[in-house]
Amino acid sequence: MEEFERLLAEGEAEPVEGWDFSWFDGRATEERPSWGYSRLLADRLSAASIALDLQTGGGEVLASAARGGTRLVATEGWPPNAAIAAQRLRRLGGSVVLAAHDGLLPFREHSFDLITGRHLIVEPWTEIARVLRPGGTFLTQGVGTGSNRELYEFFLGPQAGNSETDEGAAARAADRARDAGLEVLDVRHEKLRVVFYDVGAVVYFLRKVLWTVPDFTVAKYRPRLAELHRRIQVEGSFVAHSRRYLIEARKLSG
């Protein structure tokens, strides 16, 4: 079990602040949606004068897409991430506001001509519509129902309430956008392959994406982790599937 203990220790030792996933290189892979969120984000930012990125994490995605000429503002609810994002975006003239993901946005109405969000915990549609300028757009890539179901059911057993299709999750998000008064311009959804090549990568993933198995600790799930380690040794990997959707919506003028 020496290798098992080493992999557990590696997965536990890596810091989880921010949304840099480069540690997974060679240890896990995830297909990317065909629409290319970062490319779309860069394109929309290039046409915006002031943009707001919701729940920005460490600001990695926003910073990588920024090309100058756009005033950048971001929100983040976890103080360690907010500090990382503030340092990163300050170099681009941007700022970060500490704000709970499920509360009111601390901005005046009609403040932004672009609002973006990648993998939001909550999509505050009413607030998005309020702070968007008339004619402004909202671009989001969301996590669909049942994302990584194979992984969390390995630890938790079969879970109820995951029968919604990828198409249904995207359609539900689009309906909420319309209910908030936005015009939906684009709706897409995809199911994507996720592959873990060692148990340490699973430990780090579950620590970092903590809502996958909300009560996860290595100590609590050591027997299941040992079983997963043996399975990966025999089969070469553990395969799950993420679910993603894209919504682009516009606030009507007038």
TrEMBL record:
GO terms for molecular function: S-adenosylmethionine-dependent methyltransferase activity. The keyword Cytoplasm does not apply. Gene3D superfamilies: Vaccinia Virus protein VP39 (3.40.50.150). Pfam families: Methyltransf_11. Residues 52-139 form the Methyltransferase type domain. Keywords: Methyltransferase, Transferase. GO terms for biological process: methylation. It comes from the Bacteria. This is Methyltransferase type 11. It comes from Amycolatopsis albispora.
